[in-house]
TrEMBL record:
Gene3D superfamilies reported for this sequence: Jelly Rolls
Protein name: Cupin domain-containing protein
Organismal lineage: Bacteria, Pseudomonadati, Bacteroidota, Flavobacteriia, Flavobacteriales
Source superkingdom: Bacteria
CDD domains per UniProt: cupin_BLL6423-like
InterPro entries (UniProt xref): OryJ/VirC-like, RmlC-like_jellyroll, RmlC_Cupin_sf
Length: 141
């Protein structure tokens, strides 16, 4: 499983900020072969409470709390590793809709973001703002 570092800078000790955590995440879950999802941090409400620290449990795929946030690290494998078969004229088998506002940053690799109408190639450094719509990701290699 991927080594996913997490560093939490928070709290005040003698009037100074401190690093309260510097370790690999413990809750990385492999949902399908190669599809790894880890919830790095969450907030339960907006505005976030900055003096409250909560460890994120080792869970499947939790739903984002109403008015809260989740920061997720996701590794997307090639479609062939997931056993996904694309059929001409049909939606991508992994097409789904989330009721969340997602901020996506591509760190490595290339993949296609597929929408109901159209798609675009994403490369390292690309940023996507996904606003609660149908979408899928396709990595052919």
């Amino acid at each position: 499983m991927n080594n996913i570092p997490r560093r939490i800078v928070t709290g005040i000790k003698d009037g100074k900020s401190v690093i309260t955590e510097d370790q690999q995440v413990e809750n990385a879950v492999e949902h399908f072969p190669g599809l790894i999802i880890s919830d790095i941090w969450n907030t339960q409400k907006t505005p976030a409470t900055l003096d409250f620290e909560k460890r994120i449990p080792n869970t499947g795929f939790p739903q984002t709390p109403k008015n809260g946030t989740y920061f997720r690290y996701v590794v997307i494998p090639p479609d062939k590793d997931l056993g996904v078969e694309l059929k001409k004229g049909e939606p991508h088998p992994m097409m789904h809709k989330t009721l969340t506002l997602d901020y996506i940053i591509i760190l490595s690799g290339e993949l296609h973001l597929i929408m109901d109408e159209g798609e675009t190639l994403l490369r390292p450094g690309d940023i996507v703002i996904q606003r609660g719509t149908n979408h899928a990701f396709n990595w052919l290699f």
